[in-house]
Amino acid sequence: MVTSRSANHYSLLADIGGTNTRVALCEGTSLVADSVRRFRNAEYGSLEEVLAAYMASEGNVDCLGACVAAAGPVRDSVATMTNLDWTIDSETVAKATGAETVSILNDLQAQGHALGHLEADALTTILPGKAAGPNAAQLVVGVGTGFNAAPVWRTHAGRFVAPSECGHITLPVRSEEDLVLSAFVEKAHGFPGVEDLLSGRGLERIYAFHATENNSETRKDAASIMTSATARDDDVALRSVETFCRKLGDVIGDLALVHLPFGGIFLIGGVGRAMVPFMGEFGFADAFRDKGRFAEFQDTFAVTAISDDYAALIGCANHLHDRMNEN
To answer: Which fold does the domain 11-114 belong to in CATH?
Structure first.
């Protein structure tokens, strides 16, 4: 049954990841619960096709505004997906939705705009940190199909979430094993980037690395690795998860020193969430603190995992609301 919606009352939100796209309508900053849909990107050739299918299911409602969060760099309101052959621009979104106001954000920017608007049961403390003032900087870190992070600042002009593509910086090397692992990872793209290790396919590369070191030709996808690690039935899977947690601590610890997020670090993304039960056992905190004479300083930063799968949509709704009411 096609839903009938009032014109120029709702806004459209879309969160485009490397694997799935989530689309919803909102009233003000509130998601319309029965409007949330998930689309597998592999089944569509573009966001325009996804939006056409979605709009048809919603009676082709004429939207007041639209905000799209894309997993890739955004320049001049044009997003280029990092792990998907899609390009997204505001003109196409406006045409597909009828929206008068359109915003195109990086997906981590959308997550940053969600901070402070999530339910308490969607937040899990990984490291406690220390209390900070209400305007302290924050950092969102996404670990899923890809890797990225974005700082969140509260300014006199409102919230500002800076775009970033830090998943493509050089992977840190702290040991002889790290050096060998980095060389192994470098074979993927000719450069050992953080995302090549700290992502779903990165976990698969870590598994391949440890399997090769054990003279094994066994290979597993990310979901199977996590299943085996949870069941404790594969030593290579456990070793891979341990390596992942340690390197994640390394990288997030470095980002904490770059951005000084005294208001907390927030971990999002399916792969990041899957690692939370293993972080205590496999040295995430130790790697996060392993910064020489700044080790004690690292205790300042709280690390929290976000479990709300629609956090980016909530962020889009709040960003769009602020933009439409800024004057």
So the answer is: Nucleotidyltransferase; domain 5 (3.30.420)
